[in-house]
Sequence to fold (426 residues):
Amino acid sequence: MDYKDYYKIMGIEKDATQSEIKIAYRKLARKYHPDVSKEADAEIRFKEVGEAYEALKDPEKRAAYDQLGANWKAGQDFHPPPDWDAGFEFSGGGYTGGDASAYSDFFESLFGRGFESAQPGQHRGSYSARGKDHHAKVMIDLEDAYQGATRGITLQSPELDSNGHIINKQRTLNIKIPKGVKQGQRIRLSGQGSAGMGGTSAGDLYLEITFNAHSIYKVDGHDVYLDLPITPWEAALGAKVKVPTPNGSIYLTIAAGTSGGKKLRLKGRGIPGKTPGDLYVITQITLPPADNDSAKELYRKMEQELPYNPRSKLGV
Amino acid sequence: MKKIILNGILLDEETELSLNELCSACSSSADLIIELVEEGVLEPVEAKMYRLQQTQWRFSVNNLQRARTAISLQRDLGVNIAGVALALDLLEEVEKLESRLAQFEINEKS
Fold:
């Protein structure tokens, strides 16, 4: 188990006042909130900051943490010294928010006792008997949205064992990904959430679809975009060129006189569905390199025989 | 062991959730959802929703995302409902601008 430097995580001095701790937390929480932040590790940072705040905002916990001593370094292998909390009386201010499983082993080894009985402060209203709904993300490829797929996903959910301890239970589910799913859509699996209490029905599992970044396609809603490199002569004279689509390659006619950056719409070749999306092919004219004498000769010939000023619109 | 493949229901644009389903999908109380509706953060599909019983409200699926974000902002950042409403609108605006920017970058590159 690694020692965690909660002061360092929050970017504050060891002698910070309680109100400084609160301000630091508010700032960092806004910065790393997973619904707001665009940073890749936002969720991890957010949890880390939440844990640090949980330990430092309560003067009792903070004092206990402080007396572990200043000699510990972040990441150092840590075992709580025996009776480390002797003389501290946790008044059960305990565990005030968040998800028990979200905190580190380090946190739990220090403050673990006493808050297992306390439940996270969530409002369950009048629906509390039914099992809790769960949410998870599932990553798929764009091609899966075209063809449908089966994905195995592993979920970790905290559950109470027979002694009332929180354990992380792992389970693997094979999920059918229906054809035509879009980024951000959800699949609901009835009865795959937590078990209900007292004979009531289990909660549901919601899976949010996220596409893996694709090497050649970009996706916007149900439309898909592809940059298509073409040669100057294909653009000038017209051509039939082979184009990849997530559903296999097709032949596309490039009209004579096609300019670079032109958007060609392939109707209905986006993500399938009741109203299927479109595939947009954006032409990119690429030049063959003038890296040998005959190529240079050809370019010179064009220079002489094709009088053309591409900058005429710029007034020069 | 036979491999069991689970078939879920895809929540598409046409799927609607009841107040009850929305509450349980957000692990939230009905009171909080009703508060979010009254602040205009969430909007039941019927135009004349106030004439309907709350139990008859139906929510489109994008309200599920909004409700979850609203609740987690409120819980994690201590933002009040009006602040949540503002944050959600701004987040949506950022998302729109980002997708326009992405389009622009596609065109720009060529």
Q: What stands out?
A: The two ends of chain A are 69 Å apart (CA to CA). Residues 91-100, 114-128 of chain A have pLDDT under 50 and may be disordered. Chain A is about 25% helix and 25% strand.
